User: Fold this.
Amino acid sequence: VEYHVTPPHPADGQAIFFNPSPMTHSPTRLLPLLAREHLVSCAFSHDLIPLDDPEYYLPGLERRQSYLAAMMALKQYRLHAPNSRHTASLIRKKLGIANAATVVSGSVLLKSFATFSAAKAIPHPSVCRFLPGEYFIMVGGEDPRKNTKTTLAAHALLGRRGIRAPLVIVG
Assistant:
């Protein structure tokens, strides 16, 4: 992780607040917290998909107002750690956030997935076109929000390290 700002130190009297999903719930109760000068706040954003098709994702005035409130609150965070370059670009563009206040956080692979055992897998459904075995599957296709390029780069890196497993991209 490359830091563009000096992380706070507890001796400085500063505190850190991480919000793992700032667009999910009403930000009303968080606004006083975000206004505190000693607080370094960081929002981990996943996407801004509702802006792509508001008619579908934000039907009705109440849903749109709620999303707008969340967007306005998102702008109050001092740091932003979206999980893709695409989302980072949108946050900078839509909210006017400086490059120095953003860092792409990426996504996390849970240990349970990394230590997957085929022996413990559920029986293979007969309607599935892929045979049981060891392969990576990515659901998302070419949509830049899905970070397909990063998946391809990670798969290529594994290959260079001698880990060979097919990659299936669906979507």
